[in-house]
Amino acid sequence: MTQDASGQSTERRHPDVQMKFVSALPDGRAVVPAEQEGKFIWLIAEGAMTDQCRREMRDYLRHIVRSGMWTQNWPDPRTC
Predict the structure, then answer these.
(1) What does the DSSP assignment read for 13-42?
(2) Left (φ > 0), alpha (ψ -120 to 50) or beta: where does 38 sit?
(3) What percent of the chain has pLDDT over 70?
(4) Distance between start and end Cα atoms, the chain
(5) Which letter does DSSP use for residue 52 in this model?
(6) Which residue has the higher pLDDT, 20 or 11?
(7) Whole-angstrom Cα distance, residue 12 to residue 14?
(8) Which pTM value belongs to this model?
(9) Phi, psi at residue 52, to the nearest 5°?
């Protein structure tokens, strides 16, 4: 594993894509994206999406992320 001067890994990580069903979302929305370092989570209101649709979207999103077509670029905390 390669590290920069701060000891952080310089290897590119692929973010994790998840979908979670929740009982309700603000303003009656059906879906809300939630991002955290290393994760992208779609929050989906229960009943707004079938399980089959969720699985297929998850598979497409994982392909996009793992193939490098989509990445997260978090700022260096030392420059914030």
Answers:
(1) PPPEEEEEEES--GGG-SEEEEEETTEEEE
(2) left
(3) 70
(4) 26
(5) H
(6) 20
(7) 7
(8) 0.58
(9) -60, -45
